[in-house]
């Protein structure tokens, strides 16, 4: 790559700096979220770093303006961008929700009946009509993996309590959006909830790493 071509690319931090004057609420997490939703498609360097161009900055400026000034949900903005580029509009995806019976969950997770019963007793799993969803499988597998280190369901009540508190923070943020009852409010609330969830996960992971370093005296 020539030096001129390299200078034409920007890091995500440089893109943020260009946008924050006009959109003070934009964050790196927001930009990553919009990428994850397929609204922008920056290239990646061999080492995995995002490479943004001025075209991406203009796309982001358009998306953020439509959200701020017209309260449009992302799916509508994405369709408008596709039409402007002459691409076919995206068809709504219909995702079949995965459901497991008790026997299927035990088989897929490797848990025994006693451990599964403990998870339900401590509120870590809550089947609906005796069926379990995909998140239940993730929880069951995670608990099975931690059992190798002597951790049982009763030890994980603090983890559940922390997740519930974080969900409460998200609820506080989306409640004013839903109360306005304007067109697209549900879609906007969903986008905010997902972005906040990603940010909270990043924060939680960073705090956990810091806590582990303290435990190890590093």
In brief, what are we looking at here?
With 218 residues, the chain is an all-alpha fold. Helices cover 63% and strands 2% of the residues.
Topology, element by element:
Layout (H helix, E strand, L loop, with lengths): L2 H5 L4 H9 L7 H9 L6 E2 L5 E2 L2 H17 L3 H11 L17 H8 L3 H9 L12 H14 L9 H23 L5 H32 L2
How does this model look, in words?
The protein has 218 residues and is mainly α. The longest helix is centred in the C-terminal third of the chain and has 32 residues. It has a two-stranded antiparallel sheet with strand order 1-2.
Key descriptive features of the protein:
218 residues, mainly alpha, Multidrug-efflux Transporter Regulator, Chain: A, Domain 2, 3 domains, two-stranded antiparallel sheet, globular, disordered N terminus
Question: Number of DSSP strands?
Answer: 2
- Helix and strand run: HHHEEHHHHHHH
Helix fraction bin: 55-70%
State the helix count. Answer: 10
Radius of gyration: 22 Å
- Largest sheet composition: 2 strands, antiparallel
**Could you tell me the strand content as a percent range?**
under 5%
Number of domains: 3
Predict the CATH topology of the largest domain. Multidrug-efflux Transporter Regulator, Chain: A, Domain 2
* Secondary structural class: mainly alpha
CATH class of the largest domain: Mainly Alpha
| CATH architecture field of the largest domain | Orthogonal Bundle
Low-confidence stretches: 1-7, 91-95
Strand order of the largest sheet: 1-2
Query: How far apart, in Å, are the first and last alpha carbons?
Result: 40 Å
Shape: globular
- Mean pLDDT, to the nearest integer, reads 84
């Amino acid at each position: 790559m020539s030096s001129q071509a390299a200078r034409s690319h920007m890091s995500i931090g440089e893109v943020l700096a260009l946008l924050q004057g006009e959109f003070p609420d934009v964050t790196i997490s927001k930009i990553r979220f919009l990428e994850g939703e397929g609204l922008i498609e920056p290239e990646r360097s061999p080492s995995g770093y995002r490479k943004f161009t001025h075209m991406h900055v203009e796309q982001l400026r358009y998306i953020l303006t439509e959200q701020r000034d017209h309260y449009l949900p992302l799916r509508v903005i994405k369709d408008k961008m596709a039409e402007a580029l002459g691409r076919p509009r995206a068809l709504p995806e219909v995702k079949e929700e995965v459901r497991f019976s008790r026997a299927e969950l035990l088989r897929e997770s490797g848990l025994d009946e006693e451990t599964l019963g403990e998870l339900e007793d401590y509120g870590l799993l809550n089947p609906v009509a005796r069926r379990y969803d995909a998140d239940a499988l993730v929880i069951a597998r995670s608990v099975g993996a931690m059992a190798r280190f002597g951790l049982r369901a009763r030890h994980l009540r603090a983890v559940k309590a922390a997740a519930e508190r974080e969900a409460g923070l998200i609820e506080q943020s989306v409640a004013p959006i839903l109360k306005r009852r304007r067109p697209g409010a549900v879609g906007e609330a969903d986008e905010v909830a997902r972005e906040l969830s990603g940010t909270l996960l990043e924060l939680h992971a960073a705090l956990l790493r810091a806590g582990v370093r303290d435990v190890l005296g590093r």
